[in-house]
What does this fold into?
Amino acid sequence: MAQRPASAAGTEREIVAPVALCRADGSFDPAARGFSRGPLSACEVPGHWGRRKRWHYWGVTSPREIVSLTFVDLDYVGLAIAVVVDRASGRRFRGGALAPLGWRMPLPVRDGEGEVAVRRRRFGLSFRDLGREVALVVRAPGLAVDVTVTRPPGHETLGVGVGWDEQHFAYSAKHTALPARGSLALDGVRRRLAEGAFACLDFGRGVWPWRSAWNWASAAGVAGGRTLGLNLGARWTAGAGPSENALVVDGRIHKLPGELRFDLDRRAPRRPWRIEGRGVTLRFRPELCEHPRLPLGVLAAELVLGFGHFEGRVLDHDLTGLFGWAEDFRARW
It folds into this structure.
């Protein structure tokens, strides 16, 4: 396994050749601790039944729509959720399915390849990833999504491998600022996805601690003639590996070292958030918010999620006006 120090990332290690997240016995391989600029980590997670967390999340934003597509397999339960928001009216279109004891299907071990498909009588969701293009398809009563995401040649994606100890570890990949096109059917009325749409993939594999928490922010758009993609995180990687903080400029990753601080009022999440740290001074102003809670006996998850505009700077780039999302997540899972 090859690694190299990245000057822009301080002491964080960069992985530049394929690596496995786990050893054959299912324990974390320390060689996977680091960040990459492409899908280099193989994320087979043998054993650990009931503790594995595997997900694919695709978020698509345009000047007119928000498309939020989630696939999660926690071994003991599987969730598939599709939400489309009309930004002008604020109306939401939803569909979903739940699978006790998980989805029981083979899942891609690398980001940037393979297919995930859920098919129920009243709900269907599929992500078909061919590398250069990804087809996102949803079918539900009153809702249909047909979106194609393109990865431009040479577009870099951020992968981060962390290990809290040999039995608790995670790999997270963010593919941000990817152009998207397609169509939506909302209550039987079909329309094209608005021009200027961008997509982001959040791919996750791992065995997380029983109590987990994170912040995440993502945005994409064109500013100053450059295509910018933002990916910021906090809390979850501290002490376990590199941060997932990066700015993507015209498809190239500019890695940000160190930890960030997300300041928000969880009781009033529509108030502006502050995101600050080395090279980052941002305000996030939510346009709409969701605050779901999922009590499952001793298990519980709480998410504060906002979609809105960012203001401020990252490195020497002004991100004011970029649209995206920010979240605060806490779970016993």
Notes: Residues 1-9 have pLDDT under 50 and may be disordered.
